[in-house]
Design goal:
alpha/beta; Rossmann fold; Helicase, Ruva Protein, domain 3; five-stranded parallel β-sheet; 44% helix; elongated; binds adenosine-5'-triphosphate; binds magnesium ion
Length: 483
């Protein structure tokens, strides 16, 4: 059972507190300790865990408030509540210096005091959880202080960019570019199918940028009327349209100094594209219904799961806006094109969900990994995570994840023919030499394509020297434009 919360009341007026301390004790089951000097209060605070301190003053003293002000530095984690005898002469500066949770006036109303103490402790607990969560959210390898993560069954070779788990060359490249782009102020355009991890990448970029201490605000642009989007992003004045019952700041200004993530950017109307373009060019914000032009400094990251280039070609997206948005362009490949990421992601999700469900999973059977490797994953990483979460939920505590717990669709997936696994190549020619050479040509050509013609990477993968690779390129007359 949780230990009772301890409330220390520092007062020289014991009898003012008789019924209030009864209520704290009887109704709320707090431990209440009455002390009459700062020295005694400090002694209590060093010998036991104190959760909240209440002090009071009479008309002629400020000792109680002074003590809270000192506590702010010496014991910042203890919540402070102040009871004054009078509001005259009480300066808001002095109150704000003490950073108290609440101040009350005498005579003490025990019901009010009980509620204030209860809320104060709840708020502190929420703030603590919020701190933990946001730290978890922002963690990067070196600030990791959560034991649970250390227990995950990571492959040694798997890498992290903030929360993005990956090993594939393609993702290493994407993350490298994102790391380089992060500290600049240029807009970034992230494209990729649904569930590939675009939002995770945006967060990683924000937390690796100089804007990390300012907000990251997310706006989904899909399925929004221009008016709503306009008011969400640029804000509005009260009465600017029906339903605008108060002023709205707008996301761009709310995120001032930070990053705004515009998701599903392909969905905005042509007229809204013009507003965005203007904002990107001038950094100017004009709230709806206002004629004041305001400035704000935000970095835009936009994402789309429909390739914008194609939309531009079809006249559905403004080319000038497209060029503006792609200060850097990142393409997150679909999971089926980076099968190497399936195993480390599976292990990561299994550990994550086992932790969350309080289960122990010994590992993942080879059959499961093989089946997952065959999956097509139109929903990409999100779909893989859903599958693993379900499997962990079904698995027995202390066992392996096996195909018994897999969903029927994935179980039925036919073995995929992966050119890079050496299957699916069709030899050409009749003689053994011709057939072997034709296979070699296909393998080298595919590897080059996979590495976007980066010859040292290709040579590395194929176990060739750079000269060896160059010779093969020449022998088979391979070139970049032939695909
Ligand atoms: N590399 C990764 N490592 C760990 N988790 C990942 C990775 N990629 C994606 N995820 C997880 O998969 C889910 C989908 O990712 P995310 O929301 O970032 O995708 P998205 O590309 O923004 O999708 P959509 O286009 O549908 O909005 C999230 O739960 C995310 O945490
Ligand atoms: Mg998304």
């Amino acid at each position: 059972m949780e230990a009772p919360k301890t409330v220390v009341i520092l007062t020289r007026h014991d009898k003012d507190w008789a019924s209030a301390s009864d209520v704290l004790l009887e109704v709320y089951a707090y431990r209440v300790i009455l002390v009459s000097s700062a020295k005694e209060a400090l002694k209590t605070m060093t010998s036991i865990q104190v959760d909240l301190v209440v002090t009071d003053d009479d008309r002629f003293t400020t000792d109680g408030l002074d003590f809270l002000t000192e506590m702010r530095v010496s014991h910042p984690d203890i919540v402070r509540v102040y009871v004054a005898s009078h509001s005259e002469g009480l300066s808001s500066k002095a109150l704000s210096n003490a950073a108290i949770y609440q101040f009350l006036l005498k005579p003490i109303n025990e019901i009010q005091l009980g509620l204030v103490v209860e809320r104060a402790l709840e708020t502190r607990e929420l703030a603590r959880r919020h701190r933990l969560l946001s730290r978890e959210f922002k963690i990067s390898g070196d600030t990791l202080d959560f034991n649970e993560r250390k227990s995950t069954i990571f492959r040694p070779e798997s890498q992290r960019f903030e929360k993005l788990v990956h090993v594939s060359e393609q993702m290493v490249e994407v993350c490298d570019l994102a790391r380089q782009a992060a500290p600049t102020d240029l807009p970034i355009l992230i494209q990729g199918e649904t569930g590939t991890g675009k939002e995770l990448l945006v967060r990683a970029i924000h937390y690796n940028s100089l804007r990390r201490a300012s907000p990251l605000m997310v706006q989904n642009c899909g399925g929004m009327s221009d008016e709503i989007l306009q008011s969400e992003l640029f804000g509005h004045k009260r009465g600017a349209f029906t339903g605008a019952i108060s002023d709205r700041l707008g996301l761009f200004r709310a995120a001032d100094g930070g990053t705004v993530f515009l998701d599903e950017i392909s969905e905005v109307s042509p007229s809204f594209q013009v507003s965005l373009l203007r904002f990107l060019q001038e950094g100017e914000v004009k709230p709806l219904g206002s004629d004041k032009v305001l400035h704000c400094n935000v970095r835009i990251v936009a994402a789309s799961n429909r390739p914008l280039k194609g939309l531009v070609a079809r006249g559905l997206f403004r080319q000038d806006l497209y060029f503006r948005l792609k200060g850097f362009e990142l393409e997150v490949p679909p999971l089926r094109e980076r099968p190497n990421d399936i195993a480390p992601l599976t292990e990561f999700f299994a550990a994550k969900h086992a932790d969350a469900m309080g289960k122990k999973i010994l590992g993942i059977s080879a059959n499961v990994l093989e089946k997952l490797n065959n999956g097509d994953f139109p929903g990409n990483v999100r779909e893989l995570e859903n599958e693993i979460r379900r499997m962990v939920a079904l698995a027995k505590d202390g066992e392996y994840l096996t195909t018994r717990d897999m969903s029927a669709a994935l179980l039925a997936a036919a073995p995929r023919i992966r050119p890079e696994q050496g299957r699916g190549f069709l030899p050409e020619g009749v003689t053994l030499k011709d057939q072997v050479e034709s296979l070699e040509k296909q393998i080298v050509s595919l590897a080059l394509k996979r590495h976007r013609w980066n010859q040292s990477r290709t040579a590395g993968e194929l176990g060739l020297s750079r000269v060896g690779l160059a010779n093969k390129i020449k022998r088979y007359a391979l070139d970049e434009s032939s695909g």
